[in-house]
Structures are given as structure tokens and as C-alpha cells.
Amino acid sequence: MRWSPGAALAALALLLTLPYDAVSYAAGERARGAAQPDPRPAGQDRPFGAECRSSVVASHVVAYCHNPYPETDRVRLHIECDRWWDIDSDSRPVAAGPAMTVRLTGRCWKEVRGVWISHQR
Question: Across the chain, where does the E strand assignment appear?
Fold first, then answer.
């Protein structure tokens, strides 16, 4: 197969106007079907983490966490109490499996200063 000078010039102009990523993809081994290792650690590219909502009524805290993702999320409820003598608390980790909703509860003796939920793979 012979290329005419005009066709070769058009191909070169097209190659030079492509974005860098497209050029490296077209010219690289992936264009020939060879598998490339993923440089990211396993599981880091997928979305993760249950969606949580908490409510405080007087000194009682209730949180609901729903996990819409296929990986289990271990959630913990953390409560900071307002009074200096009132003991802050952290719940034990609760596994929220795929498509599962879990309920976390806790309380202070008096007022609640802050509530947050931590997530762990």
C-alpha cells in the first residue's frame, strides 16, 4: 500500500491535532490489545461510603446510614457532649452491607455538642 504525499500530510496533520491522551492511546500497546496494569491501588477508583443522616433530640442521637455501593462500609457514630463532665462516646463499628440501611444510636447525659460518622472499608 502506497501513500500519496497529500494523504500522508493529512494523516500527520490529524495526528498532531489530537489531544496528547488520544495520541498515546492510539500509538501505545493498548491499541494492539495488550493489557496494561492499573497504577491505582485496588478499590480506589470505585465510589465508596454509606450516606448517613443524623438527628439530635434533647440528649439522644439517632443516625441512619444507607450503603448504595457493592462494598461493605463499616460505620461508627461519634458523639461529643457539651458538658465537660459528660463522657463523649464512640459506637462500635457496624457493617453496612450492599443496599443495606443500619441504625446507630447514642446519647449524652445532658446536651449534645457534635455528632459525626466515620467510614472504614
Answer: 51-57, 60-67, 73-81, 89-90, 94-96, 100-107, 112-120
pLDDT at 50 over 60: yes
Question: Which pTM was predicted?
Answer: 0.62
Q: What is the pLDDT of residue 110?
A: 92
State how far the alpha carbon of 48 is from the alpha carbons of 54, 88, 108, in Å.
19, 27, 30
Give the Cα separation of 71 and 120 in Å (integer). Answer: 11
Taking Cα atoms as reference points, which of 92, 93, 86 lies closest to residue 107? Answer: 86
Nearest to 80 by CA among 90, 69, 95: 90
